[in-house]
Amino acid sequence: MKIAIHQPDLLPYSGFWFKIATSDAFVLAEHDQFQKHGYQRRVQMRQSWCSHQLVGKPALIPINKVEVQPGWQQRLVDVITGRYRGSRHWSRRGAELVARIQDSSGHTLAEVNRGLIEVVADMLAITTPIVVTPPPELAGIERLIEQCSMVGATEYLSGTGGTAYMGEDATQRFAQAGVTLTWSAHQMTTGDSIVTVLMDHDNPMDVVLREIPPPANLGVYQHTSTPDHDDVAREFR
């Protein structure tokens, strides 16, 4: 069984959805530590930030312990409406998206973002199960392997940003645990939120599933690294 693991980000970019769509199960790492400047609370929409308003100034606590200010549904709808009204697919997809956001619930950052992820997954017709494991005890690459073990995974699909912290021996360390490490081949069209893809493209799944083409001088297809969301963050900074 192939899985991917990621924090519950706010309406993230297409590479996030590539990992969901091409996995057998998707683990939301809501026990991970909240990152103040991470994508759990903010995302680019039309190349400008859209952010959740949080209760207090959370630090050094898990994502599922962070609280979102009440009224987040209307704030998010207002931003989306202001930036996407008049877009090519606003009349159909935009109306559906804002209606479903207004009907959403949730108090913690993990609850809110998971609900939004489930809404978009349904709109994209992605049926991959979304699961949450018990709190893992380890850190770094061992934490990922631990979660793979929890759900019985035999293959782990990672964004290429994982190379920054997993180390050169990552493939071997996963293999020792009986798990094949695979790197995402997603070809990024935009670093913006999936909302941009929904509003601008006739077939959003064509964008989500787009892969880097094989090099012209190779007779056999080989996956090549492509920026994941962490790399996109560095570009915007």
How would you summarize what this structure contains?
This protein is of the alpha/beta class and 237 residues long. 39% of the residues lie in helices and 11% in strands. The protein has helices at residues 14-21, 72-84, 90-102, 109-123, 140-151, 163-166, 170-176, 194-200, 204-208, 229-236, and strands spanning 2-6, 25-28, 42-45, 48-51, 130-131, 155-158, 180-183.
Structure description:
39% of the residues lie in helices and 11% in strands. It is α/β, with parallel strands linked by helices. The strands form 2 sheets. A 5-stranded parallel sheet has the order 5-2-1-6-7, sandwiched between helices. It has a two-stranded antiparallel sheet with strand order 3-4. Helix 2 packs antiparallel against helix 3 (90-102) and helix 3 packs antiparallel against helix 4. It is globular and about 50 Å long. Mean pLDDT is 91; it is low at 217-237.
Strand order of the largest sheet: 5-2-1-6-7
Number of helices: 10
The radius of gyration over CA amounts to 18 Å
Please bin the fraction of helical residues: 25-40%
What's the SSE pattern? Answer: EHEEEHHHEHEHHEHHH
Anisotropy-based shape: globular
> Spans of 5+ residues with little confidence (pLDDT < 50)?
217-237
| Biggest pleated sheet | 5 strands, parallel
Estimate the mean pLDDT confidence.
91
End-to-end distance:
36 Å
Strand content: 5-15%
Work out the number of β strands. Answer: 7
Supply the helix-strand structural class. Answer: alpha/beta
